[in-house]
Amino acid sequence: MITRLSNYFLKTLREDPADAEVASHKLLVRAGYIRRQAPGVFGWMPLGLRVKGKLETIIREEMIAAGAHEVHFPGLLPREPYEATGRWEEYGDALFRLQDRHGADYLLAPTHEEAFTLMVKDIVSSYKDLPLSLFQIQDKYRDEARPRAGLLRGREFTMKDAYSFDATDEGLAASYQAQRDAYERIFTRLGLEYVIVSADAGAMGGSRSEEFLLPTEIGEDTFVRSAGGYAANVEAYQVPAPEALPIAGQPAAEVFDSPNTPTIETLVAHANAVLPRADGREWNAADTLKNIVLAITSPAGEREVVVVGIPGDRDADLKRAEVAFAGFEVEPATAADFEKHPGLVRGYIGPVRGEEAVLGLEGTTGIRYLLDPRVVDGTAWITGANIDEKHVANLVVGRDFSADGVADLATVRDGDPAPDDSGPIETARGMEIGHVFQLGRKYAEALGLKVLDENGKLVTVTMGSYGIGVTRIMAILAELHHDDRGLIWPDAVAPFDVHLVATGKDAAIAEIAAELAETLDRAGVEVLFDDRPKVSPGVKFGDAELLGVPRVVVVGRDAAEGFAEVWDRRTGAKEKVALADVPALFGA
Amino acid sequence: MITRLSNYFLKTLREDPADAEVASHKLLVRAGYIRRQAPGVFGWMPLGLRVKGKLETIIREEMIAAGAHEVHFPGLLPREPYEATGRWEEYGDALFRLQDRHGADYLLAPTHEEAFTLMVKDIVSSYKDLPLSLFQIQDKYRDEARPRAGLLRGREFTMKDAYSFDATDEGLAASYQAQRDAYERIFTRLGLEYVIVSADAGAMGGSRSEEFLLPTEIGEDTFVRSAGGYAANVEAYQVPAPEALPIAGQPAAEVFDSPNTPTIETLVAHANAVLPRADGREWNAADTLKNIVLAITSPAGEREVVVVGIPGDRDADLKRAEVAFAGFEVEPATAADFEKHPGLVRGYIGPVRGEEAVLGLEGTTGIRYLLDPRVVDGTAWITGANIDEKHVANLVVGRDFSADGVADLATVRDGDPAPDDSGPIETARGMEIGHVFQLGRKYAEALGLKVLDENGKLVTVTMGSYGIGVTRIMAILAELHHDDRGLIWPDAVAPFDVHLVATGKDAAIAEIAAELAETLDRAGVEVLFDDRPKVSPGVKFGDAELLGVPRVVVVGRDAAEGFAEVWDRRTGAKEKVALADVPALFGA
């Protein structure tokens, strides 16, 4: 069926919407794809539904090819299962909560692990019913604090979420791989470049987890990769520990006065002035050990103050800290925390604890002390002495102090080593376009999903979770494919195959254009036909460029001589083509 | 693609779910179409999605054929527009309300008049942009008090809602007719018998309104129809007023003692005993005028006590009363109401008011008195005298008393006249399957949707609203099409064209069945193939009957000789058919 602009529910805007900050938001509103209903909540106009529908079809086809069965869950779900898995609380303000008329608690589901788990529990009883992969394409809800990026991060959004169910770890690995492969096919079909990075499990908890990131300067995620093929979310990067150094023969530790050295820079300058090294090398920031005081709070609400020693040329990365202390909330220690722990002498905190009594230092008794993985036995440091206005130099790990454990939360830099020995890493920016994730047995355990195994023994099922934000992908495609005149959709999701423009007031030209539209339509080409009789060519051309159908055919003055003009919006090329040859351009 | 039961997300149940009261609920759960998530909230399994998808396709095709454009609105909507139209309050407990993290009020939309109106306001500015019809197929929410009928009345349900926008009343009439025609086509395609009845507008307010009712004994709606073609919801039926009778020559009214006559029956018996008629006829209930005391409450909360006189052989129908007092809440007067109005002598209330002073009766001064349309001038009645233990006989309308107006709220009976003179009506039960409704300018007025007319003058747009409950229709189809063994879907929405069962342990038979499945599949026949190797024929047959694919092909013992058995679930016929002839049965 030909879609005629003279009778289509569409209005293009010349101005960007006031609340739009990103290109996709501006263009999708201006070109009449979506309209704002509330912050982060959009209504879909016919053009928008077409593109979204094509995206969903591609995703659905690849899910089915991967052996997943389509189901559909409600947006409105009861509290109890989310209570059982802890997510009712964990989600915090991002969860829309409500009550029904009887006062029962409900939520608008942000993802559906619980619902899928319970349905599978209801259906499946034996390992013979597994493996099983299910998916849905469904509208989800998250109460984002500042929903300002249009479809990139809405409060109501469409997601494909899939879940796999297996009796064994090997089964999970295979189901995971099938989904991972499907994701590769989906993004390839959409022409989306991607890097698969190891990802932090974040709030979800579990084992293997990978994100599909689109490398782009405007991405909100940082990832690292090596030339040798390593790639990880910056939160998931783990620095390999270097080999320990020999302790024997190292100079003895010595305490020195260090007034007015509030920063690493002032401390280094002071050390170079008062403590010249025997070998003449200057001290620098990497020779100092910076002691970061953090407060971590367990899910049960217990707050603990910990000190983490990291090389002084790095800072703590709070997002990486949240991974290092997975499951805990992490924040810098507050004044109140310091008051509770008078052993922490601000500006002069050191790694030596009272029980070790090196050099008579009292130390930070009773507080856990953790070390960056680089700070191995045998390394020597300038660091705080736990005494006001005093530092200590040549303090050697394994000789003068030791730690309670490791915490890898220092900032990551270009040139840091990949953990798999594949060379130095570089950091880059990316946008998440998909996430595959081995949940393991967390949800099955919490909700009692067990099956009988080959030996007739009940075993807990292990699960995977696989998500693609459909509406988010649509926004990302708009971010990637536009110019200053408008959108330029990839063929795979373009709302139409051709945008056919009839110009001028000549009835004969309109007739030729209409015939061409019919010919294309009969051949199965999806035609958007701008047949508006009283709209100027300039406005029609502007709309054609804004709307983003990748190929535009203009039937105008030259039509009488048998020619049309064909625009390629991607290359900008405009070509005079015989009318008779136009259908062949579209495979018709 | 062949769907194989050996690898399908399906489990059939032998027992009805405990919370299911209606056949569709029981069968859709037992046959593995849906699963309960919360009261009135369901998850959809693959079989259920298939049927729902086919229903949606039929509805979508007919909407597009009717010239409507598809859009999609969020389920989560802000309060303000619903406040502007009054529905935020009007919906009462049936509306799911919630707040976001900033404390802003939201709702889960029960219907989308407001959202459509605002989007059209955003897009449309001139009568030239009209007429316009939009539709969506979308999940809606209503917090039903007792959601116990499965998909018949869920709290989350899928609806097709369409809205038309016109500059003129004639335009609305045409848009309405186009939707009404589309509904006729949809229900015809679904094989659903329907009666189009005039309907009360109910809470929505507006002008023309019709319901598509499926006539069925188990329907929750009562409607009336005449042999001559009149049909109306029982709430919308309006009794035609008979002609007035001559007043001259009627006997004079007379008050008589009537102790212990609490009911119409006792009153009639007493009257026959103490007041024999001159012509010897007996008094009967139809000669008495029953005075109903109601309390009506305006949207602003003002409560008024009114009295309505109806023939004593009828009762008041509170649903019809709500239509008679449209916009007001109606309930029987309470003891408190009577206390406030001592003029109302319980058991002896009459139509004479103080100012008329017939026979010296004091009457019910200051209370509005309304009459059933049948109680016309010149009719004479036995009715209350407003004095304890006294009634009055031969009280003639238009001579002894008059009313403040008409209220048509008496019960409706078989044999009552159709208002259009098309003969006596009969009452019947039906189930609502669709609703078309001229909203008029209510929503456009409240939300400021205006366009420039031909003369450049701003005019308010007039709207229509057209709804079909998709999931409800699915339940209704299940109600209509099942037997004691299971579902029997109509072809138009059957999840598959054929349910192919391979029985026995013979590998050769399995092979023959698999080949048949391939042949059918290649010809475009949708095949559900029960290839489960270790399931007994009895269980397979039971599942085939329960699932409801209308035609079942059994490949078993006779396969070696080249025969299959073909079942027609509708007729129950089982026929031996040559394997080679099976594809032709499915047009393949």
TrEMBL record, chains A, B:
The protein's Enzyme Commission number: 6.1.1.15
Q: Pinpoint the Aminoacyl-transfer RNA synthetases class-II family profile domain residues.
A: 48-490
By its UniProt entry, which SUPFAM superfamilies does this protein fall under?
Class II aaRS ABD-related, Class II aaRS and biotin synthetases, YbaK/ProRS associated domain
Which reaction does this chain catalyze? tRNA(Pro) + L-proline + ATP = L-prolyl-tRNA(Pro) + AMP + diphosphate
Q: Where in the cell is it found?
A: Cytoplasm
Recorded hits in InterPro entries, A to Z, give:
aa-tRNA-synt_IIb, aa-tRNA-synth_II, aa-tRNA-synth_II/BPL/LPL, Anticodon-bd, Anticodon-bd_dom_sf, Pro-tRNA-ligase_IIa, Pro-tRNA-synth_IIa_bac-type, Pro-tRNA-Synthase_IIa_type1
Per UniProt, the enzyme's principal EC class comes to ligase
Q: Name one Pfam family in it.
A: HGTP_anticodon
Q: Name one GO molecular function term.
A: proline-tRNA ligase activity
Question: Where does the record locate the signal sequence feature?
Answer: none
> Tell me, which GO biological process terms does this entry list?
prolyl-tRNA aminoacylation
Q: What is its quaternary makeup?
A: Homodimer.
**Entry note about domains:** Consists of three domains: the N-terminal catalytic domain, the editing domain and the C-terminal anticodon-binding domain.
Q: Hey, which family's this protein in? A: Belongs to the class-II aminoacyl-tRNA synthetase family. ProS type 1 subfamily.
What name does the UniProt record give this protein? Proline--tRNA ligase
Q: Which organism is it from?
A: Leucobacter edaphi
